[in-house]
UniProtKB/TrEMBL annotation:
Signal peptide per UniProt: none
Gene3D superfamilies per the UniProt record, alphabetical: 3.30.420.40
InterPro entries to which the protein is assigned, alphabetical: ATPase_NBD (IPR043129), ROK (IPR000600), ROK_cs (IPR049874)
Family, similarity comment: Belongs to the ROK (NagC/XylR) family.
Protein name: ROK family protein
Native organism: Streptomyces roseicoloratus
SUPFAM superfamilies xref list: Actin-like ATPase domain
Length: 319
């Protein structure tokens, strides 16, 4: 019987994905549910349990020896709890304990989704071979993680590098986190779409008002859509430059659904970055798309639970 599998859970505001992943980073079984993000905490946990149950139905389940979770944040890896900004029903929710029980007692390791994506990109993606990097997830929210001195650096609670709640507009709008002018409040997909709609952009006949639809309009030259992405790019550039100045990263890797906009996002981002990253030791900072795609969260969660590729400082709990 094989013994090289881990259970990986990627929990966000839109979907809850699960997989059995082998030591080489290959996903051998998948499961997924929509996140009932506006429901109560037990309903959200029910969706997680359904994903676990589907994976447990595989004959390969018996080969899984541990669980890794990458969750929307903030998380507290030291206590095994999560309080995602975009899942209001979870506040100090004991996710590690609940998943430990749902998986029949497997040891569970928790990290933030940004740290998970960072681990995936450093293991198999665009940050591979870089000793100092910032990796970002730009999607329903904006998360991030750091690689410092060649190792993923989650911080004491698993939130280090959480660029989404760095303030880049001191007089900006209030954010769901309680702050003001956060990167997420400007650059996340829903906020890109909200800003475009507020400034006069209108969806096509299909009624699609998502950030992806705004990106399509921007590619077609719609000035309002172009401006909405430019504003998001400026916020990301300000956050990336501030991070680079603080810890001397040499590459920023951007994944998540919004990164799928391609040049509509990356061209103004690189232009804005030249205006913010001006000191000599950050002028050579590069920005590239992530390579691990929609599997980044799962691969990073697997890395957190795998001793050989694990994340230093991540807390594994077996209640």
């Amino acid at each position: 019987m094989r013994t090289d599998l881990v259970v990986a859970l990627d929990i966000g505001g839109t979907k809850i994905a699960g997989a059995l992943v082998d030591a080489g980073g290959r996903i051998v079984v998948r499961a997924q549910r929509a996140t009932p993000a506006r429901e109560d905490g037990e309903t959200v946990m029910g969706a997680v349990a359904a994903v676990v149950a589907e994976l447990a139905g595989s004959p390969l389940w018996a080969s899984a020896s541990a669980v890794g979770i990458g969750s929307a944040g903030p998380v507290d890896a030291s206590t095994g709890t999560v309080s995602p900004v975009n899942v209001p029903g979870w506040r100090d929710f004991p996710l590690v304990e609940r998943v430990h029980r749902a998986t029949g007692g497997l040891p569970v390791t928790l990290v933030g989704d940004g740290v998970a994506m960072t681990a995936a990109e450093h293991w198999q993606g665009a940050a591979r071979g870089h000793d100092n990097a910032l990796c970002l997830v730009v999607s329903t929210g904006v998360g991030g993680g750091l690689v410092l001195d060649g190792r993923v650096h989650p911080g004491p609670t698993g939130n280090a590098g959480h660029i989404g709640h760095m303030s880049v507009d001191l007089d900006g709008e209030s954010c769901a986190c309680g702050g003001r002018g956060c990167v997420e409040q400007i650059a996340s997909g829903p906020n890109i779409a909200r800003r475009a709609l507020g400034n006069g952009w209108r969806p096509g006949p299909d009624g699609d008002a998502s950030a992806a639809a705004v990106a399509a309009a921007a590619r077609a030259g719609d000035p309002v859509a172009v401006a909405s992405f430019a504003r998001a790019a400026q916020a990301l550039a300000a956050g990336i430059a501030a991070t680079a100045t603080l810890v001397e990263i040499d590459i920023a890797v951007i994944g998540g659904g919004v990164a799928g906009a391609g040049p509509v996002l990356f061209d103004p981002l690189r232009r804005s970055l030249r205006s913010y990253a001006t000191l000599s030791f950050v002028q050579n900072l590069t920005v590239v798309p992530a390579l691990t795609g929609t599997d980044a969260g799962l691969l990073g969660a697997a890395a957190a639970a795998t001793p050989r590729t694990g994340i230093p400082g991540a807390v594994s709990t077996s209640p």
